[in-house]
Design goal:
Layout lengths: L4 E10 L2 E10 L2 E7 L2 E8 L4 H11 L9 E7 L4 E6 L27 H9 L12 H13 L2 H6 L3 E6 L4 E7 L2 H14 L8 E4 L5 H9 L4 E4 L5 H9 L3 E7 L2 E6 L6
Parallel strand pairs: 3-6, 9-10, 10-11
Antiparallel strand pairs: 1-2, 1-12, 3-4, 5-6, 7-8, 7-9, 11-12
Length: about 260
């Protein structure tokens, strides 16, 4: 079974001073679900309670109404596979449900590691943009977007995302899901005719591989978060030439990949 954390060497900033540091990053585990011998989906998750995760997923997707419909359920943690069979051989129509994100359930995922397969599956190319950001702007931008949400201060139940250029915050959106908040920012930017390639994304929540890939596919060179990245997000950021910053708190931050863009 994969560990829940992974270690990375990163660049740690405090004010205008930087130093190398070893930090723990939460692991992101690919779990492929086979439903009645059909490959259904690969979920990226914390590597624990995998049986409960698989059951919860097929229930919320409407594939079963109750657990009594399950004939067998087995988990192979080495390969990252759950196999589920129902008493009635219900098959999924491909036109209604397609595989997502990763096209294989193999735990080793071939040459180069898992993140190469993710890149290949979506044909994501490295970000060529050489835009940079002054370190003080990282701290200023994060303070601005976090201060913008009165509802978040009251409830703690929203995620915030923003689009910035090198000088100012351009768009701020919120949602209960961090992916939704980011998608709202992108949509609002398109409506306003704002080009994305030389901009910066800021988010209040965790940066998963999905969030990282959204950024890379839009050719946005920098993503900044108040929270943590997953280990796959760090690996992908390194491979895709994208600057990944986390734990922006006051005048402190961790740069996990391509710190050359921060001046």
């Amino acid at each position: 079974m994969q560990e829940k954390t992974a270690k990375f060497i990163l660049t740690k900033w405090q004010g205008r001073e930087k130093a190398q540091s070893e930090e723990l990053v939460v692991s992101e585990y690919p779990l492929t679900i086979f439903f009645n011998q059909q490959e259904l989906v690969t979920l990226l998750c914390t590597p624990e309670n995998l049986k409960a995760l698989a059951l919860g997923f097929i229930k919320t997707e409407g594939l079963i109404k109750s657990i009594e419909e399950i004939a067998s359920l087995s988990v192979d943690t080495a390969k990252g596979i759950v196999e589920i069979k129902t008493k009635e051989s219900n098959f999924i129509e491909e036109k209604l449900y397609s595989k997502r994100l990763i096209p294989t359930g193999c735990g080793s995922c071939g040459k180069g590691g898992l993140f190469f397969n993710i890149i290949d599956s979506i044909k994501c190319k490295p970000v060529k943009n050489e835009s940079f950001l002054v370190v003080d702007k990282v701290y200023t931008f994060m303070k601005k977007i976090l201060a913008a949400s009165e509802i978040f201060r009251l409830t703690g139940g929203l995620h915030t995302a923003a689009l910035c250029n090198q000088d100012e915050v351009l768009v701020v959106c919120e949602d209960i899901a961090r992916h939704n908040a980011m998608d709202k920012v992108i949509g609002e930017s398109l409506l306003r005719g704002i080009k994305l390639k030389d901009k910066i994304i800021l988010v209040s929540g965790r940066v998963s591989s999905e969030m990282l890939l959204k950024t890379a596919k839009l050719e946005i060179p920098i993503i900044i978060s108040k929270s943590a990245p997953t280990h796959l997000a760090v690996e992908l950021a390194k491979e895709l030439n994208l600057t990944l910053i986390g734990f922006v708190r006051g005048e402190r931050m961790n740069v996990y990949a391509h710190d050359w863009r921060i001046k």
